[in-house]
Design brief:
Layout: E1 6-8, E2 11-13, E3 18-23, E4 36-42, E5 49-54, H1 61-72, E6 82-86, H2 91-96, H3 119-131, E7 137-144, E8 150-156, H4 161-170, E9 174-177, H5 185-191, E10 195-203, H6 209-225
Parallel strand pairs: 5-6, 5-7, 7-10, 8-9
Antiparallel strand pairs: 1-2, 3-4, 4-6, 8-10
Helix pairs in contact: 1-6, 4-6
């Protein structure tokens, strides 16, 4: 996208600026606010907007570590375009080491959500309303649920030449074709025209350090391919 001004959650981020915003949708039962950090970095040079997300399932912490490394190593600071990072989408599940939201719902099955629905539904709604409309490409990081180990893989829908080319740039050990699941984040993004790679690797409540470094390199290759960072 080429808009000179980018406004997210009521905050305007100009070219060359970086901001960390907090998405606050609800509170814990103790009335404690839980803030979902949204880290935005914009270059002065125009270019695409790429979103990195992890932790839709709160116990899949490997993806959170991947996004954290990208931020810690300044990979999220582009020379062209905009990079948005959300290291933990389901902060409720992350705090409780649980896959679901406190209302028992799987966030990755309630999209597009509802402004006045369940807690998970409200998060889905605001994510699609506030973040996704600004995005051109996305990589969503997951791990195997129920402590099941998933070999590192990229999942894309079939018959999409652009996604196939991006998956080849990412160069994961495996690329799987899988249809979008109704209610999933990937499905909702696809309907809004966002090209998404879904990464699966490792298992829940575990950080695979060696694999994590390779996944970061894959994400860097995608950004370099888009002309957003130097190799």
């Amino acid at each position: 996208m080429s808009a000179k001004e980018l406004t997210i959650l009521g905050e305007t981020i100009l070219p060359g600026q970086g901001k960390t915003l907090n998405m606050e949708i609800a509170r814990l039962h103790t009335m404690t606010k839980l803030k979902v950090p949204v880290i935005i970095e914009r270059a002065k040079v125009d270019g695409p907007t790429v979103l990195f997300t992890a932790g839709l399932h709160g116990d899949e912490i490997n993806g959170t570590e991947i996004v954290r490394q990208m931020i810690a190593r300044n990979i999220n600071k582009p020379r062209a375009g905009t990079i948005i990072c959300i290291p933990v989408v389901n902060i409720f599940g992350f705090v409780n080491q649980s896959r679901e939201f406190p209302d028992g719902r799987d966030l990755n099955r309630v999209f597009p959500g509802s402004k006045k629905g369940s807690l998970a539904s409200r998060f889905a709604y605001f994510l699609l309303k506030e973040i996704v409309p600004h995005v051109d490409y996305a990589i969503d990081f997951h791990a195997g649920g129920a402590s099941r180990f998933n070999a590192p893989q990229i999942r894309i829908v079939p018959n999409d030449a652009n996604l196939k080319a991006l998956s080849e740039v990412f160069n994961a050990p495996f690329t799987l074709y899988s249809k979008n699941i109704p209610g999933s984040f990937r499905s909702a993004c696809s309907k809004l025209g966002v090209k998404m790679l879904l990464f699966e690797g490792g298992k829940s409540l575990d950080i695979n350090s060696e694999g994590t470094h390779e996944v970061v390199r894959g994400a860097k290759r995608v950004l370099h391919h888009q002309g957003m960072i130097n190799q």
